[in-house]
Design brief:
Elements: E1 9-10, E2 18-19, E3 21-26, E4 29-34, H1 48-53, E5 56-57, E6 64-65, E7 70-74, E8 97-100, E9 112-116, E10 129-132
Antiparallel strand pairs: 1-2, 3-4, 5-6, 7-8, 7-9, 9-10
């Protein structure tokens, strides 16, 4: 779907009025971000600031992973992956690490979509995440 060029103010369900398109900074990286409709409740979900607070990092390539990203699950063997700040274990299995789904990263099937947990209501608190589609 083609986006209009306007960058309107929106009020996501986290309650923080923001522009629809913005930027997220994490791990010395910058990524463009869009406030999207949540697959969980069908309303606009989190503002850029909240998305930024939930940013995690791929243990294989180090790139940032944001909620609503497709992810693959990586089974750590030997010391292939670094457990740097921001790297998380899969919330549902805790035997696998959550990695990015970029084509040029390590191979692997789609694991699911990284989502903020349904219970996420509070701003400024690191909330649990869940992987949709597992
Ligand atoms: Zn917010
Ligand atoms: Zn990666």
């Amino acid at each position: 779907m083609r986006q209009a060029k306007t960058n309107d103010w929106v009020v996501p369900s986290c309650g923080h009025r923001c522009r629809q398109f913005g930027r997220v900074r994490a791990f010395n990286q910058i990524r463009n971000n869009e406030v999207r409709v949540s697959r969980l409740h069908g309303k606009l979900d989190l503002c850029h600031e909240c998305v930024q607070k939930l940013a995690i990092r791929c243990p294989a390539c180090g790139r940032m992973i944001l909620v609503y990203d497709e992810v693959r699950l990586l089974t750590p063997d030997k010391s292939d992956f670094s457990l740097d700040k921001g790297v998380i274990w899969c919330p549902q299995s805790s035997k696998e690490l959550v990695g990015c789904f970029y084509k040029d990263c390590v191979p692997g099937a789609l694991g699911g979509i990284l989502m903020p947990d349904k219970g996420n209501k509070e701003h400024g608190v690191r909330v649990d995440m869940t992987i949709l589609g597992m």
